[in-house]
C-alpha cells in the first residue's frame, strides 16, 4: 500500500498531551497513533449508517438458574442469518457469559443485541466490538 506523507499544524500543548497519550498506549511513533485514530473515526462514522454491513461481538452475562438459556437460544434461532456463533462460558454456580458474533447491517445487529440485552434476567449485555465490512 502506498504511503502518503503530509504535515499538520497543531497547538504545542496538544502535541505534548498527544505524545504522552501515545507513549502510555505503547505506540512506536505518532504516525502509528494517528493512523489508528483515523481508522477508528472512519469506522465509527461508517457504523452510524444502519444500512452499512458490519460484524460485531456481543457479550452478555445472565443467571442460568432463571431458565434463561432456553429463552436466549430460542431468541437466537430467530436470527439465523445474522448470528454466526456463540461461545458460552460458565462463570460460577449461577452466572454464565455468552459472546455472540453477529453479522449483518449495522442497524440490524444493533437491534438484535438490544433485544437480547433486554431479555428479563440478563444481568448485563453490551456490543463489545463492532467493525464495518
Ligand atoms: Ni453456563
Describe the model:
The chain is elongated. The protein has 2 domains: 12-47; 53-130, Alpha-Beta Plaits, CATH 3.30.70.1150. The chain is α+β, with helices and mostly antiparallel strands. The mean pLDDT is 93. Strand 2 (83-90) and strand 3 (95-105) form a beta hairpin. It has helices at 12-25, 30-47, 68-76, 106-117; strands spanning 53-63, 83-90, 95-105, 122-132. Helices cover 40% and strands 31% of the residues. It has a 4-stranded antiparallel beta sheet with strand order 2-3-1-4. Nickel (II) ion binds at residues 64, 88, 90, 96.
Condensed summary:
Helix content is 40%, strand content 31%. The chain is α+β, with helices and mostly antiparallel strands.
Write the layout of secondary structure elements.
Blueprint: H1 12-25, H2 30-47, E1 53-63, H3 68-76, E2 83-90, E3 95-105, H4 106-117, E4 122-132
Antiparallel strand pairs: 1-3, 1-4, 2-3
This protein binds nickel (II) ion.
The site of nickel (II) ion has 4 residues, from strand 2.
Mean pLDDT: 93
Give the structural class: alpha+beta
Major beta sheet summary? 4 strands, antiparallel
- Termini separation (Å)? 19 Å
Low-confidence spans: pLDDT under 50, at least 5 residues? none
**Gyration radius from CA atoms, angstroms:** 20 Å
- Overall geometric form: elongated
Strand fraction: 25-35%
Q: Sketch the topology as an H/E string, one letter per element.
A: HHEHEEHE
The total domain count is 2
- For the record, the CATH architecture of the largest domain stands as 2-Layer Sandwich
Ligand list? nickel (II) ion
